[in-house]
Amino acid sequence: MNLMFSRRRVLGCMGVLGGSLMFPRWLLAADSDDLRQIAKEAWIYAYPMLMHYQTMEKQALNASAPEYVGGFNRFRHYGELFTPSNRDIVTPNNDTPYSWAWLDLRSEPQVLSVPTVPDDRYYVLQLVDQYTHNFAYVGVLSTGRDAGNYLIAGPDWQGQIPDGVTAVLRSETEIVMVLGRTGLKNTEDLPAVRALQQQYGLRSLHDYIGSAPPVAAPAIDWYPWDSKTGLGLEFIPALNQILSLCPTQPSEQALRARFARIGIVPGQGFDPATLPPATRKALLAGIQDAQAQLQAAVSQVRTTLGLFGTREAMDGNYLNRAVAANVGIYGNSVEEAFYTGTRVDNQGQPLQGGRSYRLRFAPGQLPPASEFWSLTLYDLPDRQLVANPINRYCLSSRDRLQADADGGLTLILQNATPAEQSNWLPTPASGAFTLVLRLYGPGQQVVNQRWQMPVVEVVSA
């Protein structure tokens, strides 16, 4: 998830960038410490939006990318299980096969339709704006199991709500990502999951009501994304285009005015090559400060509490929003799912292949989840699934796990095959690894931090 841009050109929302490549006169003589601090704040603010843009570039803009979903306003469903050979995303999970869509709401809303689902089926459709806020949900925990039609509208839409619409879901931004997750019970359940995915529908509003299409929005000359340079000074022109699709919110007016002092203005051109040396040095120093701050914060993360949510839930904590994008962009809000895990054992040592461990949940202390929970192992530093003889990459409450005599549950984490395999999660023969515990429909004791994942105990080194 480290990205950047290379080519420099003037771009724009709605086709062209407004403004020029000229810098305000005061920028040439501005205090370097002030420029450095603003650049630091702006980079932290921009980071998750840039990561989001990188994903959009692959999925909605670049038809040659393997992640391409087909453009805007259509679903691509993934009905296969992840294996160690799938390396498109980090920390993949096999709990919930994905459905992806990107919506362009500039000309009109889109209508998301979902079917009725049975009581034993979990699904959720997560709606994410360009700030990476989870601004709405459709699914069993948020809207129930009944069929429905949800009108997804951009910030400026003022039309009439048609008959048959269950609810209007309003985005702050013109581009919206929809990430669907459909609960998978086991490999034999894949056909049922695929059948359900095909019932998730997207229609333009004019198709839904049977009217003539509106005037199409102008084509956008999207900023070229380059993972080698985009997190350097080129983050500014990239952010300028992104913000041109994101109307300024009242809570960010002062922040946007401050960022404008280093050339961050929606739709405005910015060429880092023309910066005076002293200004360039100050801005680069601010970016380095921001990157160091982000990595320090990431190293302290133990759970996803406070990392994902609505604008109101995030409450202006831009560092947490950046941390979320770094450790696992598009995580669910805590009301929907909770993620925790560990990279160390009970002795404070990194989890290491070749050693034997156990993870025991005491009686009455199983992960509190109304839907289900899972524990998945990933290698480090890549955070990918690890090949093993039985092709088992996670353990879940949906598996036939063997309880302890006292009602607790002990999971075996080792490379060697144990005599009893029901509770065995194979580990690599060597190398560091990490564990991620996911709870779908977490209990209130999770939200209140009255429940914690137990430590991983060393059995033998």
UniProtKB/TrEMBL annotation:
Keyword Disulfide bond: no
Keyword tags: Signal
Taxonomic lineage: Bacteria, Pseudomonadati, Pseudomonadota, Gammaproteobacteria, Pseudomonadales
Residue intervals of the DUF1214 domain: 336-443
InterPro entries linked: DUF1214 (IPR010621), DUF1214_C_sf (IPR037049), DUF1254 (IPR010679), DUF1254_sf (IPR037050)
Protein name per UniProt: Cell envelope protein
Organism encoding this protein: Pseudomonas laurylsulfatiphila
Signal peptide: 1-29
Coiled-coil positions: none
